[in-house]
Amino acid sequence: MVGDSRGAGGNGAGTTRRRRAAAVLWCLVLVTAGAGGVAAASAATTGGGSGELTAASGVAGGPEAGAAALTAGDAAASAAGGVSADGNDTATGDGSANATWTVDANSTAGSPLTPAPTGDLAVSNPHLVAYVDDDAATRGGLGTFTLQAAAPDGDGAVDLLYGGGDAWSSYLSVRVDDRTYVTGREVLGARNMDGYVTQRPTVDGDRIVTEWTLPEDVVVTQTVTLDGPRARFAVEVENADGWDHDVRARFLFDYQLGAADGSPVQQNGSRVTTETVVDNPGVGGANGANAANASVGNASLDAWRVGDDPSASGPAGVATARTAPTRVAFTRWNPAYGSPYAYDADPDAEFYNASRDEGDGAGLVYYEFGTVAAGESAVARTAYGPDVPERSAALYVPDQTTRGGTVTVGGASLPYGGFLAVYDDDGDLRGVSEELPAAGVSNVTVTLDDPLLASESLSVVAYRDTNGNDRPDLGAAGGDDPYAGEDGPTTERAYATLAGPFGAATDFGDQTTDGRTVTVDSVNLSAGGFVALRTPSGAADDPGSIVGVSEYLRPGTHENVRVEAYRVPGGQFTRLSFGEDQRLVAVPYRDTNDNKLYDFLDSDGAADRPYAGGDAVDDEAYVTVVHGGSADDDDGGSGDSGGHAVVSDTEPTYYQVDLAAGQPIDNLGERLYAEEDRLVRWALGNTDDGISGRGTAWPDESVRACVDAGQVRREGATARVSFTVADGCSNVTLTFASYTMVDADFSPETADQQVLFDATTEAFGPGEHTVTVALPDDE
Q1: pTM of the model
Q2: CB neighbour list of residue 128: distance below 8 Å, 6 or more residues apart
Q3: What average pLDDT score do residues 657-674 get?
């Protein structure tokens, strides 16, 4: 800005700037939040009517009307939500005596604002642009920040914090024991944090994350997140030291409203223009029940507003706090900037002069975490943005019948995106949806981590992705907030009737096998699922007792179901066959989450529970193991049709075949494809019997998203595998390799004796592909 000059200095001196006076066009909102979880979640599970939309949901009418509105992505107008039927609620008014403008704060459409070309790191949406200094050579300091919003006339962006998009005058302070650290590079009396940065400012979706590790081994993470018309600032401190530390934090916000650098502050109905401090503000008013804590000097501070008189037309500011900050101070920027942490306010000093309509104001928000024990952490959050109304969410959840593993939300309108969480009547979280877009969605399936075992009432709560990390953090310190309705979190209740009765039966006869596969004579599953093998000493609901499981079986009766030994998703086994005669129990399991994958082990017994009935549905058999061949090999083995093993006169050559992402591994004794999360399919076999065992691995998520592979098959002296590369995936490098083995079973102890026999490696694009590899012979 013309005439601006700044230098470092202490409290009340040393840093000066002259700013052009201007009419106040913007009124801002500052929202504070401290450490602590989302306490409203369990409380939100009461109230509301089954199958009907409450006023807090922002939708008028019954289930049919609600579903229709939500499917279209709109919400009918209501007192709680204030959302018009077209989904665009506008706020109009005068920002000054001579200015009239309109802010469409609720629309989630439109292009993101274009950041100013200052060179700072930036994230933007249609409402805001947040900037963080990521250049150690600039004046600001890594992590200093500023903020702009959409201009009132819709032409570009205007300042909400000083700088015109150049981040430097607003910064974070952290005090550890008796030492103060600041992100501001020109602040005297404290250590600048640039030299301790362990993660330079990094864009992660709608947020910018910066991390420092201070000499006391206290890890500090600052996150600036755009959430609709709010920018949320979070500081997390983690004590990675072996000693306890006293930790405190302070945000300094250098207020700037458009061209106006000085503005009054509205606090508890009073117009504040001189330096004011509120210590230990209570959380009362419309947002909490702690108003009784308010006293002289400890006022309830639900809201303060940076801008003109609240009686004037135009947007008004609202601030809320789940956990109040330790102190809030409204000060002059110049001396506050030069004071790295503690600040002595002068009640006679003006940060805004009404007669000249000018000033230079700032806000200081303090959080004293106290003693942070070794290995513990604490989080504080505050938010800042233009004071425009925020849209409420809307839900429609019908009564429904379920198999117990999922709940369907008929419709949801989440104006800023987020998640849907399902709670039971005890307030326990049962499941959370995938992240949902900022739009109206219908028929959202929520998989329950804890499946229903009986019919019961459930509540669905709508959450915003408040901390911008694209994952649900419900109830965690610094986590996600529920969408707010008129009477609390946006919640809908419904009654879930458990489908049934579920029935299953197994017939499992004594048999002789080569130890790699076992056959269950028949299994009947009323709702589909799996048949698994467990040891008699274990229990059906004990994941540690499972030693084999079938592929997914559709509802009905299935005969001669093959179960491969130790091929269990989520299992950690070092052998691939039963090595000795033993008794096994065949147990039927439900597919409770309806994904046709056996998730019993991966979920630690929460998903894909066994069919009820115990001994009535299980069956036990004695399995005799004879090594050397198997009659039920489907790749051309030499067994007879009777299902008994045939012993070869000479020892065959054993081999292993792997389909994996990336390049081949020459020596499996040094590393394994599975350990590197890139094994897709595998098979074991020998020259007498062909392929005797095969299975599916669990590679990295990026590989799973791009590659869908079939089973490995033998064709004479070669093995082949077919797979499909998904659309949108290109240059996917895959290796198909064969190895000799010293024995029939794979073992990490003998992996260094395996020899790479043949391999083919190629980069594949979208579509179907087939590759082959030579198999070892007897020579």
Answers
A1: 0.53
A2: 113, 147, 148, 149, 150, 160, 226, 229, 230, 231, 385
A3: 91
